[in-house]
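Hey, quick one: can you model this chain's 3D structure?
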Amino acid sequence: MISAHGITHIGGSCNKENQDTFFIGENMVGIFDGHGLRGGQMAIAARDVFARSNIYSDIASVFAAAEEAIKSVAVSLTKIGGGGTTASVLYVDPDGSCRVAHVGDSEARYFDDVGVGSCLNADHSPTNMSEFLRIMDTLMPPDFEYAAIPGRGPSKPIYTEEEDGSWTINPIGGFYRNVRKDWASYLVGYRIERLAVTRALGDFTMKKHGVIAEPSIVFAPPPAAGTTRAIVVASDGLWDCLQYAEVCVIVRRPDLIGNAEAATTELVAAALAAGERIYGSTCDNITAIVVYVTKT
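Sure thing. Here's the predicted structure for all 296 residues.
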C-alpha cells in the first residue's frame, strides 16, 4: 500500500517566483527545482514529460525526452542558456522496492527507523571527486570553485593538482550551503556562468563544460514485512534547512506514519520555520513529497 502527498512553497519573501514543481502519479513521484532565467518553465516542461511516462519505460529515454522538451522553452539560440532544472523521480515497484533516477541536488531519503535514514541519490555537487574527474576528462572543463563570501575576497579552487598528477580536495571553503555544513561550491564556465550541480536538465551552455543530463539511478530493497517505510523526496530548499534526523523525527512520528498529507504539512512547516530563522527573507523555495510504503 502506498500513500503520497506533496507541497510546494515559495519560501522567503525576497523570492519573486517559485521555480519548484512536482507531480504524483501511480507508484511514482517527482520533484523538479528550476534555476536561472527560465528555470521555472523548464521545471514544468520536464515535469510534464515524466508525468506522462510509464513507470516501466526506459529511464534514460525519459530523461532524454525531458531534455528535448526543455529546449523548446528557449525562444532563440541566443537565449538557450537561460537555466535548467534538477529532476528526482521515485519509482515504487509492486514489491515495495524502489529506485530514484535523478540529476542535480533534489534529494531523496528513506527512513525505516529512527536516525538519519538512507540516501537514494548520488552526489552531483562540484565537491564530488568522481564527478570532478569525469568532467576534467572533457574538452572544455570549467573551474571548480568554492563560493566566496560577498565582499570578503575571491573564491577558492576546490581541487589542487599534485606533482604526480593526482588531485586532492581543499578542505576549507567560503561559507556553508546547508545545516550539515557542506561548503557552497560552483562550476564556473568560460563566460562566468555558475552552476551548483554537475548534472542537470537544461543548462545548455554548460553542457560543453561537462554538465550532463544522464541520470544516476539508486535502488533500495523493499521494507520488511509488516512495516511502513517513509520516503521523502524534496528540493534543496528543505534539505538546506533541516538535519536528516529532524526529518526522520517528523515522518516517523507515530501519529503521522501512513498519513502522507499530515506528515508533509508538518515537514514543510518545520523547514519554513528553520529557513526563516537561518536564512531570513532569502530562504529558498521549499518542496517536499512524503511517501509511505507499507509491506504486508
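One thing worth noting: The mean pLDDT is 93.
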